[in-house]
Each structure stands twice: as C-alpha cells, then as structure tokens.
Amino acid sequence: MMFEDKFGAFADVLALQSLAIGSNVSGSVVDAWVHVLNDDPNLSLPGMPRHLFCIHDTMVDWMLSLETDPSGSRVAAFECGLKTSLSGRHHLVDLHDFDMVSVPVMEVDHYYLVVFDFEDDRIYLIDHLGEWGLVCF
C-alpha cells in the first residue's frame, strides 16, 4: 500500500505505476489526489476559492451518452459521486458551499477535467491530449 487516508481511499504500487508515460491512469490514483486536495488546509484559507475535487467516477461515460433520463439515474449517480468525494462529510453536498467544483472524466485513454466556476459563471474543459486544450463556456 503506497497511500491510504483516514477515510479509506487508497492507491497501491500497481496503481501508481499507471502514471508511467503511455499508461492509462488508474482511477484510484486520481481518487487519492482528490482526497489529499479536499483535505489540504492551504486550499481553505480565507479569501481562497472554496474548491471541491471529485473522484474519477463522479461523471462516467454512460451519463454523457444517455439522450434522456426520465428516472433521474444520471443525477442520482452524480450525487453519489459527490458524496463519495466528500469522504463522509455529506452535509457539504450542497454545491452552494463551493466556488469551484472539478470533475475528472476518464475515457479509456482520454482524460478531461471539467471545472465548474460558480463565482464567474463559467465552465472550463481541460483536455489532456490537447485536442481542445482549454475551452471555456
């Protein structure tokens, strides 16, 4: 075990090896960083934006491919991912408590980071392959 936090998030040696160039990054590595960043006291200083980093499966490919969602399964799954990102601090799931929310999207060998900036009413999409670079909506 290379990393484990007080909430049970962990990354083993094999997962960390997925950071090698040409490898597909393991979701547990992303999740380990999420838990570290969400607990970093330097990111919650007065005057700093309140930022929530989400786990790798908060938004998954099937959520994006559904044309309709009459049962609300997409929203339920997204909320579950948010709660998991908060590591047992479910009372914080109200997104009004945050200025920014970062959601990784992992598709086989293509990764994105979607950042919802509630202060500036913008959405940023960062594409790791550089096909789109940084896109702002």
Fold and architecture overview:
The chain has 137 residues and is of the alpha+beta class. The protein is 26% helix and 23% strand. It is built from 4 helices and 7 strands, in the order E-E-H-H-E-H-H-E-E-E-E. The protein has helices at 13-17, 27-38, 61-65, 73-85; strands at residues 3-4, 10-11, 51-53, 100-107, 110-117, 122-127, 134-136. The strands form 2 sheets. The chain has a 5-stranded mixed β-sheet. The protein is globular, with a radius of gyration of 15 Å. The mean pLDDT is 76.
Question: Topology of this structure?
Answer:
Elements: E1 3-4, E2 10-11, H1 13-17, H2 27-38, E3 51-53, H3 61-65, H4 73-85, E4 100-107, E5 110-117, E6 122-127, E7 134-136
Parallel strand pairs: 3-4
Antiparallel strand pairs: 1-2, 4-5, 5-6, 6-7
Proportion of residues in β-strands: 15-25%
Helix content: 25-40%
Query: How many DSSP helices?
Result: 4
Question: Major sheet: size, sense and barrel closure?
Answer: 5 strands, mixed
Give the key terms.
137 residues, alpha+beta, two-stranded antiparallel sheet, globular
In short:
The chain is an alpha+beta fold.
